[in-house]
Design goal:
Amino acid/polyamine transporter I; binds 4-fluoro-L-phenylalanine; single chain; 483 residues; mainly alpha; 73% helix
Length: 483
């Protein structure tokens, strides 16, 4: 039983607490923060959605982050093995390991479409990088992005990309290959090293672009008002479900990432403050991303509710009209790329660690295998924008009736698998796992432990369960929303 010793059969461990924090923050901070969060906040009217989101992070996300990391560390294996070990130690049914299986499957599915979206980011890194070089060589380094192009031409770039399956798939392949390469290099030599370089670079770039928006535009105050003045009429069951799904997605919960990374944490790390730092850093970045993006969007009179095209179409239009927009555009897409890469490696690590533990494959073989299959699923998602654009995989189900292939995978994992996975973790840790083991792992005592346990055992299952239910059956609350 691996309950007394950290470290797993699938790899080495983190070299230090800082290394773990960087890797876990790297896993958490990703497309979810910079692409999905501002998109959802914009679509759902800003303030109220963000307030609910922050509430979910504190009351549900934070206790769950701690629960997952401690399960991983206590179990000391891949996600499935860890939950199985803790269940065995707690004299509970082996079936609880299904939590690990559900999570690994979710992470694997997320990886497959995440890499496709990251491919779009790479496209814009190249396009804006080329644009900036062009501006530089023509002696105008501070030109706006895509100078000389009309708004239609700039927004049309995305349509062109989507209409080009070979390019979409090629970029997806590049991103997946980079992810596989890092995971194949190991926990210390791959994942930890990548996080150590990419995360600090990411933060510097994020601060640069946010300051730029605050200084160059007059709309920083408007953005703050939009983000932090709640309009509760904009909230409905779907928005609540989306806020929860987003909180779970952004914190990398219920997708095997934290369970797996937790197993590489040494015994002497105090988990409660560590989990708190991870959750706060992730939420802080989401807020900063909003403060980075909305002033720029507002400054040129664009709509914050533009949907998924917000950063790929609206922002390039804005960069076109702004001083040094060419350079800033390049910096902006590069920082998203860094964030996406440190997240995708955590998505790949979950299933890879399982393949290593279960089949005794060597790490590179396991990483290539898992990455290869995820790549294939991603190819189908990419084709959903062109060749298969008519396909609605779950079209018979009202909540997915309009969703293309990628949206369906995104919605199915975010709205169903993640809430379900989180619900089960809360029930298991709150009610079934050995209480002494759990308390000892958290490092919490007295009132703080009671409070945490109350959140995990009562608040999380009830709130997550309700949101899951209402998300699946919107008609339960507002019959009108059912159609
Ligand atoms: N948290 C990542 C993001 O916000 O982009 C996505 C993610 C990574 C989800 C790792 C789940 C996971 F295990």
């Amino acid at each position: 039983m691996a309950l007394t010793q950290a470290g797993t059969t699938s790899g080495d461990g983190w070299s230090s607490r800082t290394a773990f924090i960087l890797a876990a923050v790297g896993a958490a901070v990703g497309l979810g923060n910079i692409w999905r969060f501002p998109t959802l906040a914009g679509e759902n009217g800003g303030g109220a959605f963000i307030l609910v989101y922050i509430g979910f992070v504190i009351l549900l996300g934070l206790p769950l982050v701690l629960s997952e990391i401690l399960l991983g560390r206590a179990g000391g294996e891949d996600a499935i093995g860890s939950v199985r070990n803790v269940a065995a130690h707690s004299k509970r049914s082996e079936a609880w390991k299904g939590i690990g299986a559900l999570q690994i499957t979710a992470g694997f599915l997320i990886l497959s479409f995440y890499s496709v979206v990251a491919g779009w980011v790479i496209n814009y890194v190249f396009a804006s990088g080329g644009d900036f070089l062009g501006a530089l060589f023509s002696g105008e380094p501070f030109a706006g992005a895509f100078a000389g192009e009309s708004q239609e031409e700039i927004t049309g770039r995305m349509g062109e990309l989507f209409a080009n399956p070979a390019l979409l798939i090629g970029l997806h392949a590049v991103f997946m290959a980079a992810t596989v390469w890092i995971v194949a290099s190991g926990v210390g030599d791959g994942i930890e090293k990548a996080a150590k370089w990419l995360m600090p670079a990411f933060f510097v770039l994020l601060v640069i672009v946010t300051l730029y928006g605050a200084i160059v535009t007059d709309e920083f105050g408007d953005a703050v008002a939009f983000m932090f003045t709640p309009d509760f009429s904009a909230l409905n069951p779907t928005a609540l479900n989306e806020a929860l799904g987003q909180a779970l997605f952004s914190l990398s919960l219920a997708a095997g990432g934290l369970l797996t990374y937790g197993a590489y944490v040494s015994r002497d790390v105090n988990l409660a403050p560590t989990a708190t730092m991870i959750a706060f850093a992730d939420t802080g970045v989401a807020m900063l991303a909003g403060l980075m993006i909305f002033p720029i969007v507002f400054s040129v009179g664009l709509d914050p509710a533009a949907g998924p095209a917000l950063i790929f179409q609206s922002l390039p239009i804005a960069f076109n009209q702004m001083p040094a927009g060419s350079l800033i555009g390049f910096v902006f897409f590069t920082l998203i790329f860094f964030a996406a890469l440190t997240s995708s490696i955590s998505l790949l690590e979950g299933p890879t660690a399982w393949v290593i533990d279960r089949f005794r494959f060597r790490r590179p073989v396991a990483a290539i295998l898992v990455g290869g299959v995820a790549f294939a699923i991603g190819v189908v998602c990419a084709l959903g924008y062109n060749v298969l654009s008519e396909v609605r995989p779950l079209g018979f189900w009202d909540i997915f009736a309009d969703s293309d292939i990628l949206d369906t995978l995104d919605g199915f994992t975010g709205k169903i698998m993640l809430p379900l996975g989180a619900f089960l973790v809360a029930v298991f840790v709150g009610w079934f796992a050995d209480r002494r083991l759990v308390q000892q792992q958290t490092g919490l005592s007295g009132g703080m432990f009671m409070l945490w346990r109350f959140l995990v055992a009562f608040v999380c299952p009830i709130a997550v369960g309700l949101v899951l239910l209402f998300g699946l059956f919107p008609g339960l609350i507002t019959p009108a929303a059912a159609g």
